[in-house]
Amino acid sequence: MNRTHQLAKLALALIGIYFIVLAVPTPITYIMVIISGGAADSANILQIFIGTLIYLGYMYLLYFLLIRKRACFAEKIVPEADQSEPGSPSQWIPLVYRLTCISVGIYLSALVITNITSIINNWILHRQIPDGVYSAPNSYSSIFLIPLAAYLLAGAPHFVRWQTRKTLEFCKTQEQ
């Protein structure tokens, strides 16, 4: 295991901890609403319970993938061709781009999960998609974000290769 692999493992753990910390207040808020009596009827309690389960599942998935299994995930981020020790700072560029894409993918997946969960809950309870934050255009954007989030979570290989090539070309022109 070299420094790039160790950096990938560390970055994945930090990203996982960051997004888990961001996700923790939501289930706590849901549980506090139930305890305080804010959910007056069983439909609201069911909605809060479903939302809490989805968030807890998301937090467990983040914990499992980014903290417990970060070594396996880091091996996928740093391919075997890149396992040699980097000689120059420019060899770190693909790793940094991949980690950035994965971070943005995690953020987009959290956004999509939040929007789709709210849309489904409102549809179950009211048989309609309400106006406002969860309106039809916003739900369509969530649906279109699903493949983008999946691509970014996969490390965006085509984008990383293209951007790395462009960055190295730019660096060479700046040196001359």
Structure description:
With 176 residues, the chain is an all-alpha fold. The protein is 79% helix and 0% strand. The chain has helices spanning 3-23, 25-36, 42-68, 70-77, 93-126, 136-153, 157-175. The longest helix has 34 residues, at 93-126. The chain is elongated.
Give structural attributes.
79% helix; mainly alpha; elongated; 7 helices; 176 residues
Tell me the Rg in angstroms.
20 Å
In quaternary terms, these chains amount to single chain
Helix content: over 70%
Which structural class is indicated by helix and strand composition?
mainly alpha
Q: Tell me the number of helical segments per DSSP (H or I, 4 or more residues long).
A: 7
Q: Would you report the number of β strands?
A: 0
What's the shape? elongated
Transmembrane segments: 12-39, 45-66, 95-120, 140-160
Keywords: Membrane, Transmembrane, Transmembrane helix
